[in-house]
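Throughout our pipeline, every protein is held as a single compact record rather than as scattered files. This encoding replaces a full spatial description with a residue-level series of whole-number codes. The remainder of this section carries one protein's record, kept here as part of the documentation.
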Amino acid sequence: MDEDGFTLRDRTVCVVGLGLMGGSLALALRDRVAALTGVDVDPVTRAAALERGIVSRAADDLTLAREADVVVLATPVRTIIRLVGEIGPFLRPGALLFDIGSVKGPVVEAMNALPEAVGAVGGHPMCGKAEAGLRHAEAALYEGAPFVLCRTERSTEVALSIAGAIVNAVGARMIVMDAGWHDRAVAFISHLPYALSAALALTAGTYAATDPLAWSLAASGFRDTSRLAGSDPLMMADILLTNADAVLETLDAARGSLEELSALIRRGDPEALIAYLERVQQIRHDWERQRS
């Protein structure tokens, strides 16, 4: 029995999308549920999931969802939205549809149109890696991570209890919040960092194309700040497009911060520049203290 009183051990879970996030979720759940099946359009991924014992059965369509008590959508966000619109006839009454996409507003809106007999909760685990694919999946990926749950019009108490049991089972920390609030917040603390990392990589790469020695000088600073630029382009394009309004707001804010920094450098005022950098440093220290 999980902490919230709901047990997963007699339930069948179907994970749709066996990439990094879906594969890691499946690895974390496989010994905690009655049966775990998987859906993926890539035959190599399906074969690997079966060979590694991550799932007991695998398919390239939604037929396995008919037998599941819980269906988790772990594909790119736009695919999640499409699947929510298609999966209703495959879900048994009382089943839970859950997703782990990085944008919640349009997913929750799509879930609101599901049959009333189906439970649905939006989810977003705040974890991951720059690398993509099942080969990088690991059961410990979710441990200690914040895991956001967003209510929908189909979020019954039972549905929320099941979703909470999944969060507990993978060792994450549950946070319940409104979908719109979530999307604006993650635009600043998750999607903007990717956009800035991508801009850095492109800017440095454009320069390095004219200076062959540049890459030989790149060390930990470039490595750390450009890490997110190595994220899966399909996944990130879906995130940026489905959360476009909030992402554009963050880019405007970042542009303002860069313009402020540029102005301080042009002025050549050491005291003003140091004050700006000390303010930035303090923000970073405050975040680190909050995490501990």
Residues 179-208 form the longest helix (30 residues). The chain has two domains: 12-177, 182-291. The beta strands are 12-16, 35-39, 57-59, 70-73, 96-99, 119-125, 146-151, 173-176. Residues 6 and 162 are 6 Å apart (CA to CA).
